[in-house]
Design a protein that fits this description.
It contains nine helices and twelve strands. By secondary structure, it is of the alpha/beta class. The strands form three sheets. A five-stranded mixed sheet has the order 4-3-5-12-6. The chain has a five-stranded mixed sheet with strand order 9-8-10-7-11, with helices on both faces. α5 links the parallel β3 and β4. The N and C termini lie far apart (about 55 Å).
């Protein structure tokens, strides 16, 4: 199956009409029909049922399309990255950071790195990428240190100990304080859950046990921010989640607890430019400890 044939299948699945799909693809309808039939013969099952009204996906075709869309998206991304890489770069550094951390500090690191190495690209990805890192699909991983304690063959580059902040609306009285204490949250609604790391879960439970506070289970951090904007409560979060967009107030919370965070590289990776890029990021974090607000 060729990439063109994949495109033909996806377009027909979108329009469910051979004539319209052929027009959108700038090919003739007989050509489209021939190519679809050729694929069905190759894979051994029917993707589309034909009728006078057009086309419809078979049950097997519906399942096939789920995987085919993912394959096509990954293939398209790989081709585009390869085209960029072949025309400009000798090497590539693949790094994963939390989205909010990346958009604030990563551009500074890439800019500084490119002044030294114009022929080396940096490809960021976002979110929880530990498994991709362990499969050697990434060169550098940002992680909370407790997540990587028992992972072998990695090198830890400590970044900072992330403190905790109360996230509230900017006109909330809590936002006017230099520091929020546990008693300050009395009578408030506290967003909890949302994939909170163990140290934060323990802190949330301590607050709930010590004072009169309502709590609301939130699915993830983005849901929590939405709930805060909807006047449903406040939350406590580590500083590395701050995206510095100015939409919310981040007020330091009075606790000695923190979350140690680090960059991780592979123990067997001795490439000098990877270490240089790590050093640039480490310096940026030393100059800007814990995402000051």
């Amino acid at each position: 199956m060729t990439t063109k044939q994949i495109e033909y299948i996806l377009e027909l699945a979108q329009t469910l009409n051979f004539n319209r799909a052929a027009e959108n693809l700038y090919i003739s309808q007989p050509t489209l029909t021939y190519q679809i039939k050729a694929v069905e013969t190759e894979i051994g099952f029917t993707i589309f049922e034909r009728s006078g009204k057009g086309a419809a996906l078979t049950p097997a075709g519906e399942q096939f399309l789920i995987s085919l869309r993912t394959i096509y998206d990954n293939l398209k991304e790989a081709i585009e990255q390869g085209q960029n890489f072949s025309s400009q770069y000798r090497h590539d550094i693949r790094i994963a950071l939390p989205y909010r951390a990346a958009i604030h500090f990563l551009p500074q690191a890439i800019t500084a790195f490119n002044r030294i190495h114009r022929d080396i690209s940096v490809s960021p990805s976002f979110g929880q990428k530990q498994q991709a890192f362990l499969r050697n699909e990434l060169d550098i991983l940002f992680a909370m240190e407790h997540e990587m304690k028992r992972v072998p063959d990695v090198v830890k580059h400590h970044l900072f100990d992330s403190r905790f902040y109360v996230i509230s609306e900017k006109d909330d009285p809590l936002a006017q304080q230099e520091k929020v204490t546990t008693p300050d949250l009395t009578g408030r609604t506290l967003m909890v859950g949302g994939g909170s790391p163990p140290v934060l879960k323990a802190l949330q439970q301590t607050i709930i046990q010590e004072i009169q506070v309502s709590y609301f289970n939130s699915y993830d951090h983005d849901t929590t921010l939405t709930n805060i904007a909807a006047h449903r409560g406040v939350c406590i979060a580590p500083g590395f989640l701050n995206d510095h967009c100015g939409a919310f107030a981040w007020t330091p919370f009075d606790t000695e607890k923190n979350i140690p965070c680090a960059l991780y590289t592979h123990k067997g990776d001795s490439r000098k430019h990877v270490r240089e890029f790590v050093d640039i990021i480490l310096q940026i974090y030393r100059d800007n400890p814990d995402f000051p607000v």
